[in-house]
């Protein structure tokens, strides 16, 4: 399916029926502002002559024209800060921080370094040995030491030596840091295909928690674009990037796509980057990471995974870290790469080396690093680069903590919590979801179609809400939260409070409501209703009509009003500390 054909069918029907979507919540804030101007004018106690009245009305009209004009030009020039007129309908998603989307990049300047890097990659890859990806061999205890050692035979001493020499060739050929190429601090997220659905939540969460960093959302190429979404997120200080504009994407493995992460870091216009996976939710503003001692000292922050290394024992020898093969790494803990903080200026050499490991990852380095028992891909290539260069880097000391699925503590992990470096007691800064992906489409789609060209068009799209055999069906249908309680001890304080733990589910549903109901690119009428009923019934969210700003009237005689997708409304958070947990 091509981009542009992927609009939701129900959206089309609404439009065909002559239904006109109300102004977006954003535009309604514009009107609030205009109304403010009007009210202030009316409240002035002067008796008005007819002339003054006309003059006043003229001013109001002029203000409106200006506001409409500002709104029109907002996608290119950034936004005028919108003031929630009354506080009732304040919504972080309307960009009150006036975050500018990163400028359209000068691709020519940003890719000037690439031929040199490509040359070094070729020099370090001549007749490079290959290893097949190991079969998936998960077992609860993990592979035995005998299995580890048996694997080492896949590489002969001659091949190991050849790989070591090529590695050294590449290190010698690393081009210098390209000055005046990258600029500023920002967030990089890799989306595309199904991952774009997850990114709708993760990007929303970033703004919900108050991050003001500009964001680049990367995809492989045009095929992976969702109609109009890129234009929509510009209003929130985010911009889409296509890797195919920067390099020949046929060079990277289409199936796994693990090599794309490092390439996004490389080509991003930002110099200092927080990379975040599309299925990873920031629980604290990522900009805080740049202020940590860890980052200031090394210019890099990595996080551990759960498992120990299960690498082929030639690895240290190959990276010239040891004159012989050894098992040293097997006692060390691996990394995950759902979040990476990187200063390209200070760590360009390590980024180059990580690029090398990923470029030859699917055919060699991923298998040198991982048994494919618990992960295989880019995850450990970043730390390996620092190990090879014997350069200091920071891995967060606190191990990841677990978030379990409701009623499945200890058996079904729903996500991993990664901690803020140096926080004591450890305070989670990322919630990297694993088995269950937090996207409104996965959770509550009702009658949705598959939308990506990679989906089998003949297959129905079945959400958890529609699948009675899924674990989550019962929870979603009974207004039950999905995460097992007990994660509060890791949670940062809810912004604006001292000690109320942030509830990640509340934040994620706020972002998912936006996707299901308000985003022009993603919304879907029936799904929106399912989502809204669930978040009202489960968490105590409520709605007020946006056409009555400041009044905050609850519709329906005190009963919760659940507006349909087309009804202009503000989403009101559950009362702090009184989150409703429905017990069976
Ligand atoms: C790894 O740890 C085990 C158990 O503590 C120990 O017996 C072994 O010598 C260690 N190996 C290395 C290479 O440090
Ligand atoms: C869940 O909450 C919604 C909204 O309050 C309500 O309409 C629905 O009946 C509730 N479902 C159950 C099973 O209680």
From TrEMBL:
Bilayer topology: Single-pass type II membrane protein
Record-level Gene Ontology MF annotations: alpha-1,2-mannosyltransferase activity
Protein location: Golgi apparatus membrane
Key words, A-Z: Golgi apparatus, Membrane, Signal-anchor, Transferase, Transmembrane, Transmembrane helix
GO biological process: mannan biosynthetic process
First and last residue of the signal peptide: none
GO cellular component: Golgi membrane
Main location: Golgi
Protein name: Alpha-1,2-mannosyltransferase
Coiled-coil ranges per UniProt: none
Family: Belongs to the MNN1/MNT family.
Known pathway: Protein modification; protein glycosylation
